[in-house]
Design brief:
alpha/beta; 8 helices; single chain; 8-stranded mixed β-sheet; two-stranded antiparallel ribbon
Length: 251
């Protein structure tokens, strides 16, 4: 079962999508954080959610739109708003389902934001899985997402529209905030046993070596997926990554 709902709190209107087999039996929740320019209805989230809740009556997956993504009404992306959205979603899920059995799955930009959240707030999750996380989000943003023209406009102090499924408006303030919030300056040893990173060896957006070095530096389990690109377009490689994550979560 998939159901849409909104969280209207903290001055936000967060568009969400819930997957579960029995709404009244939910005791464990996976919060899925999509990538830059993505949305709550993306195929990767749907595939994972359907697999995760199948035959698991007490399991739910919640996917939500980041600010300026999907159906979100905001027009200018701010890093602090992303933190507010994630915090608000987690607080809502705890109250709504009366549970502390929370898990997290983040891809690319979503993986970066989850790691930023852990460093700044601690770890509220039983387990955290990251697929192709943008460890160097600043470098990824300016190198793989923005064009030469975008970089020139940002350098002159002007906002630009960048992204994949939906173009997102970013300005120099967002770029500088991402540069300052470099997750590589933090240590994750306290959370290392509860984090898994999987990354495709053919990722054309986020360099696999960034994830590998980050995992090595923090003693985090790292699994390369041979031949997988950034979006894991090959269904077999997507299935392999989902199986690894579900096993890691202990579902």
């Amino acid at each position: 079962m998939a159901k849409y709902f909104d969280i209207n709190e903290q001055g936000c209107s967060i568009r969400c999508k819930l997957y579960c087999t029995d709404l009244h039996a939910v005791r464990r929740v996976i919060v899925f954080c999509h990538g830059f320019g993505g949305h709550k209805d993306n195929r990767a989230a749907e595939t994972f959610a359907e697999r995760a809740v199948a035959k698991r009556k007490g399991m739910a997956v919640v996917v939500f739109d980041w600010p300026c993504h999907g159906d979100d009404a905001r027009k200018n992306l701010l890093l602090e708003d992303c933190d507010t959205y994630l915090t608000t979603v987690l607080d809502y899920v705890r109250r709504r389902f009366e549970t502390d059995e929370l898990y997290a799955f983040g891809t690319s930009f979503g993986g970066y934001l989850l790691l930023k959240y852990l460093a700044e707030h601690g770890n509220p999750f039983r387990k955290v899985a990251l697929r192709c996380p943008a460890i160097d989000m600043h470098g990824t943003l300016l190198g793989a997402v923005a064009t030469d023209e975008d970089r020139a406009l940002l350098a002159s102090g002007k906002p630009v529209l960048v992204g994949f499924d939906r173009k997102v408006k970013i300005g120099p303030h967002f770029v500088e905030a991402v540069r300052a919030a470099d997750i590589r300056k933090y240590e994750y040893f306290d959370f290392a046993d509860d984090i898994l990173i999987v990354h495709g060896t053919a990722d054309e957006v986020v360099p696999m070596r960034d994830s590998q070095e980050f995992a090595d530096d923090n003693v985090i389990e790292f699994v390369p997926i041979e031949g997988a690109d950034h979006r894991f377009r090959d269904p077999k490689k997507m299935d392999a990554s989902i199986a690894l994550i579900i096993k890691f979560f202990g579902l």
